[in-house]
Amino acid sequence: MLAIQGISQAVLALLLAAGPGGAAKGGAAELERGEKLFKAGDLAGALQAFDNVGKTDAKDARAPYLRGVVLEKKNDLAGAEKAYREAIARDGHFGPAHNNLGAILLGRNDLPGAEKELLAATASDAKNASAAFNLGLLREEQKQPREAAVAYRKSLQISPNDGTCHANLCSVLRKVGDLDGAIAECRQAVRLMPESAVVLTNLGLLLSDKKQFDEARDELRLATQKDAKFAPAWTGLGRVELRRKQAVAAVEALAKAAKLEPKDSGVAADFCRALVEKDMRAKAAEEECRRAVALDAKNGLAHYELVKIQVARGDCAGAKAEMGKLGAIESAKGPAKAQAEEIVKTCVPGKAVKPTADAKGGKR
Predict the structure, then answer these.
(1) Among 162, 164, 161, 140, which Cα is nearest to 150's?
(2) Share of the chain above pLDDT 70, in %
(3) Are the beta carbons of 137 and 152 closer than 8 angstroms?
């Protein structure tokens, strides 16, 4: 099963015209000038303007905060972190600085530090949608999908038209088994980001989970049209076509996925399976299955398909050899192994037959 991809990005809170404390008249003018320079793309000029305010007004937290925003834009994360910490030292309740500092710490996987700052950001400003969103990202990193969902929902209460947040909420709801809720959130994400191949793919995968294969196919086809180089869309489409018993369409989709992801054993195994469904005696089917095994010797699905191929050719010794390899793979034990054993029993040396069992397990 493909994993839904959350669109993970820390959102910067840029409050150029607001903040705690009141700068002196000259400082306010300089902040406004810095804002205009920033919007015009003159980062050096904006940085100088904000530095001027910081030097003349040691109490206004906005100057170091805005300096941090500019430095982050320049990809100077160390400088930005220092600036945000200075803003917090000036005003410990300045939520935007806590949020942006938390985002930087989250980006370098300092989860305890990020949690401290993001909780401070949400406590300082209950209407800070960015902080709630970033807290959701943190909870996902902490493997707490239910808590992540709470944070994303809080962010959406403040900013209901955030397509990225709807997409991430979709992802975590799927993880906790709420498929209907996940589909609803993905539909919202598609409405807000109709050109995103990622959210269209996610919606298609969810519909496939619900066994709504025709609608899943339509969404996945649309995803491939939006981005022909997005491999997960082609992989998902190929798998759905297999569920729809459309082997030719599955081969076409998975051939494109395999071309985009030539080193992905899972994609190779899916392509192998599609080729087997189309014509298991074709040379290309065995070649793709063996390519999948070469990429990952423990790919249970590929070994299972090779069992079918050998039985179909009447190569009982070859089938038993593949059966032995499949049986040694822990993840393939259970239904896949049992079905493979039943297929091997139908093998007649030198006589071509068509195996009737199909895999339900094995490494994907």
Answers:
(1) 140
(2) 88
(3) no
